[in-house]
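fold-stage: in
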Amino acid sequence: MKQTSAFARFIAAQAGTFYACTSDETNLYCGTDKSINFQVDIDISKPPRREVRMVVKGKPIWIDLGYVKLPNFCYGCDRLGHVLKGCDWVDSKMEEEKLQYGD
């Protein structure tokens, strides 16, 4: 699977609306983990997608998505706009292992 700006646009479209690719066409990889960096507008009324499903050579694969610089993300209800401590949706005694996005 070749990482191109078209590939980045396809992945971004699964998460939201593609905004910009943060690398040039010849250098989409960033770091040793071979991740692709791009900017995307997301609907903050819904939980951000954690993965994208693709079919490559007839086989389904899952691509993990990671987000940086998210403001005030609640790891309990998976919404933007507040943090776990101020969340009305979850019990304040929720155990860490139940948090889908980590701590």
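fold-stage: in (second)
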Amino acid sequence: MQIVATILVILHLIGMAYLLGAFLVQIKDVAKGQGRILRGILDGALLQLITGILLVGIYSAGLVEGEKTNDAVVGIKLVIALAIYVLAFLNRNKVPTKSVVLWIIGGLTLVNVILGATSVMQ
């Protein structure tokens, strides 16, 4: 099961990179009010949700020895990931997308990255 968990962690990181990268690649357009929801934002957010839920399930079930979950952090990260996906999904056809929506998506993504990085170190 360790191999499955490792693959899921890699996919989770790819989803994060895809999501954050899709935001950062158009940051100049966002600042000008001409940004939009790129496919990478939707796909990255969905990949993060799916892999995150699977990882929590594997770790909570005790299938990987020595791994535990911090339920408070997991809950916060889940709410943030859902908010990112819902915002992206609801605004996917609006061109240009309101800059505030894209800044919120970028900010929430950064918060999730920080939570993920700091909660692993505990």
